[in-house]
Write a structure and sequence with these properties.
- Belongs to the class-I aminoacyl-tRNA synthetase family.
- By secondary structure, this protein is an alpha/beta fold.
- It has a domain at 340-467: Orthogonal Bundle (Isoleucyl-tRNA Synthetase, Domain 1).
- The protein is built from 18 helices and 15 strands.
- Helix 4 (98-110) packs across helix 10 and helix 17 runs antiparallel to helix 18 (457-467).
- It binds zinc ion.
- Zinc ion (ZN) binds at residues 126, 128-129, 143, 145-146.
């Protein structure tokens, strides 16, 4: 039986078009999914959209649209982004779907009755965050994420008794039974838990929810708090509602359940989500990878500043492979990084056009010019690199993984410069040496292509096509220099 592997991205609100930050998350999760598939693991990769958020309701009101019409239109853009970036997700969960509603309600009903209780509540609520804040968490009376004044909300809601799980959550995370990467985020979560966990509200009134969202089972006056329903997507997307085969295969009979998220929603994934699953008596996720944010000029991207980077425009101009490469290699996997077009173009010319592209042209050109017959046994490719890459991928350090592959590109470049096959070609007695040198180079390039597959799948396929052809030809340049 092949090992199983399950990976998810977070599901973003669909109140606006997707931005570059979500493109980063998709590309990171995709590289991991493809990496595990390449190792012949039975892999399932889920992404989706959070359509039940109150933010979507507000966006629809502003546009004068029905909420359903707005989420249908905007979710289509998120689906389009997965295609534009060549993301290999196996499914896309929509939280307006019947299977999600049924699954979220099943999870609610499965929670231990002693963990859920109803109480009157008054609090400061940020709709942007879909979260209550305490007075001391605010900055100048405003939400620290949105710099807006939270609303005072008073109503009777259901609460989840998070305090029942404090000890178990602490142990779960301290022991790495639920591993949080990077370590700094693990420590943040631990100190948050050790400060004492407060129960959190898991529903809101039907009225405040504007009749949008998943109804609480058995209580038509209440709609589930959007985070309760959104988190459940990780199992509802696997047909948890019907105990379907994908749920059994990838959640129950699988030890590798990985969530990829941005740092803004870590508490929900590191604390609330495992507590909900414990209460329902279900298996817990195993790994949480937390990526950083993409900034512009050191600051946040925002619509009002007009500096939002549109991932579709980038793909249109440079192609999916270049965008994938830039996001994985030059955006730090966990530290906030600046995005700028100048550095993207520099990376393109230096790493892709002059580095990899040039190496492929150089070697295929030498083979074609000298009419050398190359036969590479693709089953005997150099494999010593796989272990090193394994370790880097387990730590989600995509930048280092690509650096490692690019070191192989430089090594091979140096090998060719030293051997000077073009000089051998002029001396009849060195024909055999010439063939050996170029055969070795072709085998190394195929090994590089194999390592590249999870990151740049189309480029890897092009390289394989060139070097496994019956007659190797130089062909077109993989990455023409930008002028
Ligand atoms: Zn907020």
């Amino acid at each position: 039986m092949p090992k199983k592997f399950y990976i998810t991205t977070a599901i973003p609100y669909v109140n606006a078009s997707p931005h570059i930050g979500f493109a980063l998350e998709l590309v990171q999760a995709d590289a991991v999914a493809r990496y595990h598939r390449q190792k012949n693991e039975d892999t399932f990769f889920l992404t989706g959209a959070d359509e039940n958020s109150l933010k979507n309701v507000q966006a629809a009101e502003i546009e004068g649209l029905a909420v359903r019409a707005l989420v249908d239109r905007n979710t289509a853009k998120f689906v389009a982004l997965t295609k534009a970036l060549n993301i290999s997700n196996d499914d896309f969960i929509r939280t307006v779907s019947e299977k999600h509603f049924a699954g979220a309600q099943k999870l609610w009903a499965a929670c231990r009755p002693e963990d859920l209780y109803k109480k009157k509540y008054k609090g400061l609520y940020c709709v942007g965050c879909e979260q209550f804040y305490t007075q001391k968490e605010l900055v100048d009376g405003k939400c620290p994420e949105h710099q807006t004044k939270p609303e005072v909300v008073e109503e009777e809601n259901y609460f989840f008794k998070l305090s029942n799980y404090q000890k178990r959550l602490e142990k779960l995370i301290a022991s790495d039974e639920y591993r949080i990467v990077p370590e700094t985020k693990k420590n943040e979560v631990l100190s948050f838990i050790r400060m004492g966990l407060e129960d959190f509200s898991i529903s809101r009134s039907q009225q405040r929810a504007k009749n949008w969202g998943v109804p609480v089972p058995g209580d038509p006056t209440q709609v589930m708090y959007v985070w309760f329903d959104a988190l459940s997507n990780y199992i509802t997307g696997l047909d948890y509602a019907t105990d379907g085969k994908v749920y059994k295969d990838y959640w129950l009979k699988n030890e590798n359940r990985v969530h990829v998220i941005g740092k803004g929603i870590i508490r929900f994934h590191a604390v609330y989500w495992p507590a909900m699953l414990m209460s329902a008596g279900l298996d817990l996720p195993k790994t949480l990878f937390v990526h950083g944010y993409i900034n512009i000029g050191g600051g946040k991207m925002s619509k009002s500043l007009g500096n939002v980077v549109d991932p579709f425009a980038l793909v249109e101009k440079y192609g999916a492979e270049v965008v994938r490469y830039y996001l994985l290699r030059h955006i730090h996997p966990v530290v906030d990084s600046d995005f700028d077009l100048k550095s993207l173009e520099q990376a393109y010319n230096a790493d892709l056009a002059n580095g990899l592209g040039n190496l492929v042209s150089r070697v295929s050109g030498l083979i074609e010019q000298n009419n050398v017959k190359i036969k590479v046994d693709s089953k005997k490719l150099p494999v010593q690199s796989a272990k090193d890459l394994d370790q880097l991928m387990a730590q989600f350090v995509f930048d280092q993984a690509l650096k490692f592959i690019w070191a192989k590109v430089s090594e091979l470049d140096s090998y060719i410069s030293e051997k000077k096959p073009w000089a051998m070609a002029k001396i009849e007695s060195q024909k055999k040496e010439l063939t050996e040198c170029l055969t070795k180079a072709a085998a190394e390039i195929l090994a590089i292509a194999s390592l590249l597959k999870p990151f740049l799948p189309q480029t890897a396929a092009k390289i394989e096509k060139i070097f496994t052809a019956p007659k190797i030809k130089k062909g077109e340049s993989l990455f023409p220099r930008l002028t």
